[in-house]
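Q: I'm writing a short explainer about DUF4259 domain-containing protein for a general audience and would like to include a description of its predicted shape. Could you first generate the structure from this sequence?
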Amino acid sequence: MGIWGPDIFDNDAAAAAKAIFEDAIAEGLSVADASARVMSELGEIAKNEDVLAVIQLALAAMQLEHKALDPNLRDEVLHIIRSGKSLKPWADLGEINLAQRKQALSVLGAALSA
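A: Of course. Here's the predicted structure. Afterward I'll give you a sentence or two in plain language.
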């Protein structure tokens, strides 16, 4: 997974999820159906736990933006944020990148909890 920054969509998997989701919404699909399309199209790469977590983070951010957040996804993403289980790729890039990613996740976590 390519990473170019700390923000939620600053990696290949999240950017792909966002593109698929936005295309599905533009086609008139509901948020739930757009989310299902993302998981269907990215299912193969989502077999990797780190990638799955990144995709779930992206989906939660997009669902929140569309005011249609699935409560089960919200709970899973809050668990991902609290556990730190999605941080390994950023930890491998060094302390500064890791700290910036933690901050981005903190902002998302606060929005999901509001």
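A: For your explainer, you could say: The chain has one domain: 12-113.
Q: Perfect, that's easy to follow.
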